[in-house]
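Sample 3 of the quickstart, ligand 2-phosphoglycolic acid:
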Amino acid sequence: MRSKIVAGNWKMNKTYSESKALVKELKKAIKEVKLDNTRVIIAPPFTNLQKASKKTKDSLIEVAAQNMCKEESGAYTGEISASMIKSVHVDIVILGHSERREYFGETNESLAKKVDTALKNKLEIIFCFGEVLEDRKSGNHFKVVENQIKKALFHLGSGAWKNIILAYEPVWAIGTGETASPEQAQEMHAFIRELVAERYLSDIAEEVSILYGGSVKPANAKEIFSKEDVDGGLIGGAALNADDFMALIEAI
Ligand code: PGA
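Result:
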């Protein structure tokens, strides 16, 4: 049975001490919750990765990096490699977030390389994709999403898919307060699962968790998470506050 997942992407928020405080709050709160086939993941900035990983070792919270260099090592000033992430006992990385695509020039092609490097280093991947508003308005959203997934992931063999989590994040819904309706999310998630089933086996499609991201908050989470093909959320804003994040975990 595929896992339900609530993952918090802290983006470029939280100083060292703020991050420590939030991890402490979450760790305490999570003890009160019964997690049934549900994974809870947080992705703090790199400066807090080691601390967060150490502090959550004895808890149900898992830690992810927000990004990673496609190269293994060398003269790439300012970059962080897969093995560096692994060396602080972090086993998950978010790749392909729309902010990385938009502000840092990441493409489907460069992401395919990142995916390979991550898998080679035994990192599990939360792979993000999603259409911009113009694509949705012109009815191109399915084509765009299909292209993003095919170009970055469909070169993989079947065995790799146990290390892939998909995150559909319509760009027009990220940080805007506007959410895809539960029906729009379900429609796209079912389409994605079908795409995976056509390329691989239906077992693989059934096992892959597909998260929704884009202005998920306590007020709308339950309805979105209740959809058959929505296996949880990748959360930005509402992951920065322990009460909100815990409410999302309760919602799932
Ligand atoms: P948001 O961000 O929840 O603040 O819209 C989601 C994301 O970017 O993953």
